[in-house]
Amino acid sequence: MIDIDWMTAMRMATAGAAAAGVVILNRRAAISPVTVYWTAFALALFCASLEVVAGGALGPAAPLVALGAAAACGWSWLFSRALFQARPAFERWPLVLVLTLVASAYIGDMGEIFGVAALAEGAPTRHVVDNLTRMISSTVLLAPVIEALRRYSARLSAPERRMRLMFVAVYSGLVAVTALWMRGAAEGSLAARYETAVLSVAPLIALILSAAALAYRLGAPLSAAAGSRPAIGVADAAAVTRARPQSKARPISPDPALAALAETIVRRLERDDYFTTPNLKVADLAADLGEPEYRVSKAVAATAHANFNRLVNGFRIERAKRLLRDPDHARTPILTIALDCGFGSVGPFNRAFKDATGQTPRAFRAGEGGARPAGEFEAQA
């Protein structure tokens, strides 16, 4: 019978759980940024655990396993970035940053292999590269917390807020213990004595945390999460639908194919208030419709709107006008209405609103068509 200590067992459990999770996810979930980056993170933890357990027995595969393990922090950032975005995408620059970070970890080895003196240990260039690597590593290590809290607000559903806070709490705890408390601890200190034990358990905790967050996200996509925007009410939603700029958005192109695509675009923007999606771009809509981006742009030009932003803002402004007229929203802050309609901040909302109506939202609300609390109407009566 093989005698295995519990710390080795933890590493083996992490490797087994990571492998099983990747296989199950590959069979049950569609390919998307969040599933791809979780798979990469799980495989990195698998490599890190395998490296500790197998050690020298890996033979020629050892460098590849070490390379896979080096990317764990980077993949955790990309996973969290996709996890907390309403419409995640495979962005180039974050991936390049992570790959650069991994490559920099082997800069000394490459210098020795290729005989580059500037990359040798103690060389000024190597010193700069090492410091830059540490800066990037620290940023990437903290990035998952930033991603979870960046768009945290009361506009998110209660389960979504709880999931984010739990993610931040567990992840921050892992970083605080492993990176802040234990890294570089003095020999003989409490941190140094328990370092090996904690580092054996931490990867399994990180894997469980990420798997739980992934399972939640697959069951509750952020773009469709209940409560992701303030509730307007059924009557209000119907009124907003009637107030949309239907005539202005209708296609005017003589090209039947473009006109048909323009109709599809308009219907998609209307369905489920898709136009309120924050930071909505032509590329997002094109991917959603499965159409080339250039064709979507041409179809948008086939409507009475100059470009995609004006088309989307037309829907958003009509919704905003309805809310500003509604007595039930008379005390709703302008910023809340702007965010609910899909604008990222109040500045662009004010400019778009004034461009469309000739008034600022505040002036519109204060005017004849603006909303006033029910009490004011009763007092006048």
Brief digest:
This protein has 381 residues and is mostly helical. Helices cover 70% and strands 0% of the residues.
The shape, in one word, is elongated
**Rg:** 27 Å
Low-confidence stretches: 224-248, 371-381
Overall residue-averaged pLDDT value: 80
- Number of distinct helices: 19
Tell how many strands the DSSP assignment holds. Answer: 0
Biggest sheet architecture: none
Number of structural units classed as domains: 2
Strand/helix succession: HHHHHHHHHHHHHHHHHHH
Q: What class, by secondary structure content? A: mainly alpha
How would you characterize this protein structure?
With 381 residues, the protein is an all-alpha fold. It has two domains: 6-222, Rhopdopsin 7-helix transmembrane proteins (Up-down Bundle), CATH 1.20.1070; 234-380, Arc Repressor Mutant, subunit A, CATH 1.10.10. The protein contains 19 helices and no strands. It has helices at residues 6-28, 33-54, 62-70, 72-83, 92-104, 107-114, 124-150, 158-182, 190-219, 234-243, 246-249, 256-270, 282-289, 293-301, 308-325, 334-340, 346-357, 361-366, 374-380. Helix 2 runs antiparallel to helix 4, helix 4 runs parallel beside helix 7 and helix 15 (308-325) packs across helix 17. The model is unreliable at 224-248 and 371-381 (pLDDT under 50).
